[in-house]
Design brief:
CATH topology of the largest domain in chain A: Aminopeptidase
Oligomer: homodimer
CATH superfamily of the largest domain in chain A: Zn peptidases
Largest interface: A-B, 100 and 100 residues
Distance between the termini of chain A: 16 Å
Strand content of chain A: 15-25%
Number of strands of chain A: 21
Number of helices of chain A: 14
CATH class of the largest domain in chain A: Alpha Beta
Strand order of the largest sheet of chain A: 1-2-7-3-8-20-9-19
Structural class of chain A: alpha+beta
Helix content of chain A: 25-40%
Largest sheet of chain A: 8 strands, mixed
Shape of chain A: globular
Number of domains of chain A: 2
Chain lengths: 493, 493
């Protein structure tokens, strides 16, 4: 298509074909530093490396800091004559790593000739001049979530420079260092450094994957999130399963019963009021929903599942309801470490995704009310002996302190329309516009609540990237698409 | 009480009061060698050390071996004029250790001034001449289960020698090296070395704890055991809990529902036929049951529980029914490692204790029939994609290969009566005679089935010893009692 995007894309593609191996080796360098938000030494290493790389590309960089928090890597580049300021949000921290589950060290990036789920084999990183397949995958923590937009931005800047192209907007950079820990200091950062953000017209949030069809996707909100940890108690110490089995209470059994009471077999949450506070969709949102391609049968085949929650309701509709998901379960040990005991406790971790209208605290109240209705006594600390001797069913409930509500942005705003038009000129009709991401992004909530600035989520990475889990990866073709996309965003009229 | 036991007990007590610190340091030496059956290097170290110690006490020792199996430490001492041969069974292997759960290295024995559950503090091992409290506890893997009878035997032999007393029976020693792995080679050992066991009149099985009142206890059988591992599958890979939560199947939720269907809230197993094959008690067994002190309320206070399974039926009665206990549960991760994913599977480890009449294979068949009745498709290996795409509910069932049935010995046999009279002359009316241990001991089954020789279980260690779990310990007073008991058994008329 002949339009404004053409020269940017040509610059991007020419750069990729010449410099692909260099882009990938620079990316491997970025991915080799562990990046859990709690690992403050390595988080700072990440921040300084990223700061340096954007300084090298002509940005005025600084680390914004608050005591005890990972720094925000902040940058700006003012463009003479620009009438719009775009702030690009990326996060450089990642989810924790369970090394036992990975094929290799999560911070020693490895290339595979395709997804390991399709039998991909490890191959060497490409050398200068070697061809690179778009189906290759680079495996490392944060390869997709969320360092991919960083390397895409860096390469796009290099590509535009090589093509003698300038930027069309003032660009600000805001790189979060604790998004995967729910960005607990984000609001403090936005308050403390408020003056830096006043002139921003639109935030472009680079996080999350493209639509499952592989088509470009753009999201106008995200689900809210909160979580609860439930610990159910048996005897005060683990007991021999022979000497006490069939008499002593079994925490795993009691927990199973409690969890079963919360959800029907078809996935409907049975907690009173769980669906009562949902804001209805606007007419425009209903239209958008109708236009989203149904990918359920494709996904079911890909994921190897026959039956989904919700009696066949499509995924995109299910994401408009609050969820209640068991993300972790533990009692005693399994496998080789399994012992012949009755464990003294059992734990469930519940993930709750919220939709517009749901208040995180009130949703957790509903869960607690349900638990109490099942005859449980709720405690906030491990129970002492007096408590244990008083109540037959004791559960410790730990409520997340850093949940936040869902956001859905008004798509008709001018700045949002600018970005939509910009990307549409590049993606054409393939672009999928989603009312809300299924995922949650505190920045969505904070920007909207505190700055009143509109935001749009722009996605580049493959949907089957294993984000948050072991063997996270990015498909190389998606990385290349990301460079195209960033080149277009930096030059859109 | 003035009887035959008097001189043996005097010899034991005099030895303990002089040599207590030496006994404990020799015990610490025994406990410092890791002893999981799969750790073949250390298992052999244990075997050779034990062999040496009994050789030093005048026993004719040898290691019985079979390829790939831990050795049996075997020994004998023939006594001129003895008309009876007693074989003492102990096992020197221990349960696996989860180091994260222990207060200290499980193989670096530490003394505490009382149980850590009562606030016990670590104290140095006593030096020569220092007083030793009976309430002290020695913490280490196998401190109770089951190296305690080894040190009790060694000390009893030393005590009798110091008191110039001989043994009244021919003594054989049979020390198992894989009891905690269900002694898979025991039957082969009894077959291969059959000639060594033909002249045994009674087996004295030293394993398990005294009655919960602290009174001496003797058991005439044990429950059988088997186990099953259930793995329930969701999508083929872990999914982002935001992008798929409320649509993708949640294995933890599905597993909770399955487990809940197996057991009523009062602990009654709901699997069809689970209670149908139980052999009724004989009149004599019913009498024994009636004479066992009810310890439920004491135990409930000690363990910090209000409600037990079985609607208030006493523990000793509950042990005469088959059990179904969740000994392990796992899906995703909990605590600091919890991630925002929908895990791809969930695992439950089921412990099943069986009573006389229950066949292990048939009991597992009943569980499988129940699972199928709930609409599950059972597989034996992780399902491939074709299977995943065909069945909505898939569970992998791994059945234990080394379960065995329960045993209950006929108490009226002469050799059993000999031992009962011997110990009664020492313990008086306090002794508690139990129809069956709640625990399971393959040797019970094998001896009875293969050698037709009667066996009696003789207990010494405290019941709150945390056997099989973290922070296993032995109360020093129980160790001393064990030395008394062994001195009496070696000299009983």
């Amino acid at each position: 298509m002949l339009n404004f995007a053409q020269p940017a894309i040509e610059a991007s593609r020419s750069w990729i074909s010449k410099e692909g191996p260099h882009i990938l080796s620079e990316y491997a360098e970025l991915l080799s530093i562990p990046n859990h938000a709690s690992d403050s030494v390595n988080i700072h290493k990440n921040a300084r490396l990223i700061e340096q790389k954007f300084t090298d590309r002509g940005f005025d960089m600084r680390l914004l800091t608050l005591p005890g928090a990972p720094p925000i890597v902040y940058g700006e580049k003012l463009v003479p004559g620009a009438t719009r300021t775009v702030c690009i949000y990326v996060h450089y921290d990642g989810q924790p790593v369970d090394p036992l589950l990975w094929n290799h060290d999560a911070f020693d990036p490895k290339m595979y000739d395709q997804s390991i789920y399709n039998g991909g084999k490890m191959i060497p990183m490409p050398k200068e001049g070697e061809p690179i397949s778009e189906d290759w995958r680079l495996y490392a923590r944060s390869a997709s979530d969320d360092k991919a937009p960083l390397i895409a931005l860096l390469a796009a800047m290099d590509a535009l420079k090589a093509g003698n192209m300038g930027y069309s907007s003032n660009i600000k950079l805001f790189f979060d260092g604790e998004e995967e820990s729910s960005s607990p200091n984000l609001e403090s950062y936005l308050t403390t450094y408020n003056t830096l953000f006043q002139d921003i017209d639109v935030w472009v949030l680079c996080d999350g994957s493209v639509y499952q069809t592989g088509d470009p996707s753009f999201k106008f909100g995200g689900r809210g999130i909160t979580s609860m940890q439930l610990t159910v108690y048996g005897a005060e110490r683990p007991l021999h399963s022979g000497h006490y089995g069939n008499w002593a209470p079994v925490p795993g059994q009691m927990l199973a019963r409690l969890l079963t009471s919360m959800k029907a077999e078809d996935g409907t949450v049975l907690i009173d009021g769980y669906y009562d506070s949902i804001d209805p969709l606007t007419e425009r949102e209903k239209e958008m929903l109708d236009n989203i391609p149904n990918i359920d049968s494709m996904l079911k085949t890909e994921l190897g599942i026959v039956q989904t929650e919700g009696n066949g309701q499509p995924l995109m509709e299910r994401l408009l309801y609050p969820s209640l998901t068991i993300k972790g379960l533990s009692s005693g040990s399994v496998g080789d470490l399994a012992r012949n005991i009755i464990p003294e406790f059992a734990i469930a971790e519940l993930d709750m995704r919220l939709v517009k209208g749901n208040d995180p605290e009130k949703m957790m109240d509903l869960v607690e009310a349900h638990i109490q209705k099942q005859g449980w006594h709720i405690v906030r600390e491990d129970p002492d002996m007096a408590t244990r001797r008083k109540y037959p069913k004791i559960v410790k409930v730990v409520r997340s302190q850093d949940g936040f509500p869902a956001t859905r942005v008004d798509i008709s705003q001018a700045a949002i329309q600018d970005v939509i038009k910009g990307v549409e000129s590049f993606t054409g009709e393939n672009a999928v516009f989603l009312i809300s991401s299924g995922g949650s992004n505190r920045v969505n909530d904070a920007i909207y609540k505190m700055l009143k600035t509109p935001a749009i989520q722009v996605n580049m990475v493959n949907h089957d990237n294993n984000q948050h889990a072991a063997n996270e990866n990015v498909r190389i073709g998606n990385l290349w698409y990301g460079i195209d996309l960033m080149s277009v965003l930096l030059t859109m009229p």
